[in-house]
Amino acid sequence: MRSRDDRRPVVCGVDVGSTNVKVLALDARGVVVGRRSQATPRSAVDAAVDARALLVAIEDMVVDVCADRYVVDAVCAAGVGEDGILVDDDLTPITSALAWFDPRRAAVFADLAGRLTPHPNSCVADDAARTIVGWRWAVDQPGAARARSWLALTDYAASAWAGTTFMSDGLAARTAAWDGRTRRWVEERVALGIGTAALLPPVRRAGDVVGGVVSDRLSRAGVIGDDAVVVAGGHDHPIGGWGVHQMDDGSVLDSMGTAEIVVAQSPAPFLERSADVDVAPGILSTGTTVLSVEELARNVAWAARDAEVGAAMNALVAGDREPDEFLHHPVFVPGTRGGGLPTYTGDAPAAALSRASSVLGALAASGELALRRIGAQLPSAARVYSAGGWSRSPGWIAIKATVTRREVTVIPEPQVTATGAALLAARAIGWDPSPSVALGMAAEISAV
Predict the structure, then answer these.
(1) What residues does the Carbohydrate kinase FGGY N-terminal domain cover (predicted)?
(2) Domains of the chain (ranges, CATH numbers)
């Protein structure tokens, strides 16, 4: 095994996703020198995450990525916005992380909803997915009385390494209890959720150095530099969008996975949330992150209950078939937020190809509305970049371009959030890597 002095320095970006956890290593020039991914460690019973198992998984991937060639000088994690845990004085998890999509949240939210007074500077709409619901659930779990702090699942590994509790400001914005204008907790909402602000950790801005990396496992493997630091990250899509913004100032990221999430960095110091646009602090700026979400997977899954329609959609998305004229006919109505079911209109055709075309056309049109909402928050017309699993499907990209009449530029790098987190870590220690190289938009520099 090489000594740490013989290894090349890298930064690591971590993406704690709902489905997978990813680790990506970036060198000082912006070259991606390694990446790993594995399934998010969820319970087979209720889909909750054991944060300790997550920490082990992340450290395993860091060791694997570095092998005997690299040493980490900084690490930054981004990921799911609302999931979290209560921890004790030793930062040992007391509760599991209730998934943002867990159906148990509905009953908790129903109990809270009537007591939540609307707040003008809240960054997100009130619904069952928000962190405040997870707070309320967690404090009712066994052992909660000995809790020292709440930690966002995304921040857990970073807090464990730094030996201190914190919450990234982009995750504070997802709680439904954070005042985006004053950057303070809304006391009455905190009281309804977690009971006391004493259980909430200090909020750190994305890009802040939180502390040094202390990990016996990583040290024994020789993959952590003596002065390695933990850097605050935050919510996954804004961090990925910020990375794209570094490559093309003022650009918009259209991330298409389970949902279609459109995100950008606005220079405006504070923008109020609307019914369709969430807000969060700007990243390494005095501006505002703006975010709009449209559902993809749930609508597709509903339509695919008809096997012939599902097969036709798969062929269209892959580019193996051409859509018919119903691509432009509004005969499919996507499901609404909060679980409202999709439907077809009364004059919808029976043919599978036509139904499949109408579904994909309607979803492309919904994405275009999200792009317009975000574009309205920006000072000038912005170039749109696409990423996520759906962006790898040529038929879907062609449908998007046909329906929206926009040029679609697909980012080659498949792990945009992890790349954004790595770029944030690099900036924190004074590196200036090329975002274009890191995102695969410029010719890769040969690694030595």
Answers:
(1) 11-238
(2) 4-236+415-438 (3.30.420.40)
